[in-house]
Write a structure and sequence with these properties.
Immunoglobulin-like, Metal Binding Protein, Guanine Nucleotide Exchange Factor, Chain A, 16% helix
């Protein structure tokens, strides 16, 4: 994947930094709206911080604990076909071994048996399920287990047409959802309705009509999941917040929706990649239609992207530079992606190749969440320097942890 495709320039990226903890190296990109020549940029390191001086002023970046610049290691490097738009620098970093990682664990990693939990709607933070204690918290087989069940059994599939459902006081963990037994209290906090018939389903009489029993928050009407059986709730991890039940303590204010979706999906992709040793994911809707293809490149990136107006360009700098707030570099997953709705010839070829070769571990999310995730990823792509937005017909983006 050495080739890089040219991308239309979108003005606004002032400074971009990517550090790789595993490689102990980094890439700094400064837009030509901020500095005209390599000599205009001076880099200095501090205690878990990075100071970048440009003609527009000095920018201080907070780095994760234990990450520092190797003094004197920053050197200019060629920017290739983007030399008219960007200045590129390579640098070295030192990474101290610190046990605590500043990362967000998914609910799959935090749920434990014989502990009490409360479930909240992520949209309005209404308490949906109160003081739930599970005797067992068990993982379900991964998303495509039905396809390989013949390899397990020497007789007809014993699981054919059977659902794996939780018993009383069980919690079953899917790749992107929780299966919980429903109780009487749910009638006060959630509503249930049958999903409408899709346009494609109504036009194809030979195709079986699959309508879902959708579960929504009674307070804000946000879709939470499905009723997969009369006594079983399927709650997607992007729709609920799960916290230990501690007295009358109220949960913290809900995160911005886009931030919550980004962190939740990023944490889960990282866990699935580590446990399954896979780097290809097919984000799908509940009816099995591929929506987005993700190729995880690395999980040790630390990134910061600062718009030009927050750095100060030469053309807008007064004689006395104003102080600039200190942004924070954050851990992130670096990935390539293709939206399955993309009509480009090369993108369609990629989608077809993934489908034919069965590449991509299925990650099932509601359609609305798939659309939210694509917006988050597209927004990330738009904040990257022009030289980093595309690679071999894929688009590039980061998901913050």
């Amino acid at each position: 994947m050495a080739g890089v495709e040219m991308s239309t320039k979108t003005p606004g990226v002032g400074v971009f930094l990517e550090l790789r903890k595993g490689l102990q190296s980094g890439l700094l990109i400064v837009g030509k709206d901020v500095a005209n020549s390599p000599a205009d940029v001076v880099l200095k390191g501090g205690d878990s911080s990075l100071h970048i001086r440009t003609p527009g002023g000095e920018l201080s970046l907070k780095l994760p604990a234990g990450v520092t610049l190797e003094q004197g290691s920053c050197i200019p490097t060629p920017a290739g076909g983007f030399c008219g738009e960007e200045l590129h620098y390579r640098l070295r970093i030192n990474v101290a071994r610190i046990s605590a990682e500043d990362a967000h664990d998914s609910v799959m990693e935090t749920l434990r048996a014989k502990k009490s939990y409360c479930f909240y709607c992520q949209g309005c933070m209404t308490r949906l399920l109160e003081d739930r204690v599970f005797k067992r918290v068990l993982p379900l087989p991964n998303g495509n287990w039905n396809a390989i069940v013949d390899d397990w059994c020497c007789h007809p599939d014993p699981f054919a047409n059977k659902k794996l459902l939780p018993r009383a006081e069980d919690c079953l963990l899917g790749d992107t959802f929780l299966l919980l037994p429903r109780d009487d209290s749910c009638d006060q906090t959630v509503t249930q309705e049958v999903s409408p018939v899709g346009a494609e389903d109504s036009q194809d009489p030979k195709k079986p009509c699959r309508r879902l029993a959708l579960i929504s928050c009674r307070n804000c009407s946000s879709m939470l999941g499905e009723a997969v059986a009369p006594g079983t709730l399927k709650l997607y991890i992007t729709q609920v917040v799960v916290e230990p039940a501690v007295g009358d303590r109220k949960p913290e204010a809900s995160l911005n929706r886009s931030v919550f979706v980004e962190r939740t999906v990023a944490a889960r992709l990282l866990e699935l990649s580590n446990s399954l040793s896979t780097f290809h994911f097919s984000v799908q809707t509940p009816d099995g239609k591929a929506f987005l293809l993700l190729w995880l490149l690395n999980s040790d990136s630390i990134i910061a992207s600062i718009p030009v107006m927050c750095v100060g360009g030469e053309r807008s700098v007064s004689s006395q530079a104003l102080p600039i707030p200190s942004p924070k570099a954050a851990r992130a997953l670096k990935l390539l992606y293709v939206a399955c709705s993309d009509t480009g010839t090369m993108q369609r070829d990629i989608v077809t190749s993934w489908e034919v070769s069965a590449i991509g571990h299925p990650v099932v999310l509601p359609l609305k969440v798939c659309e939210e995730l694509l917006r988050v990823i597209d927004d990330s792509n738009s904040t990257l320097p022009a030289s980093m937005r595309c690679m071999n017909s894929y688009e590039a983006a980061y998901l913050r942890l």
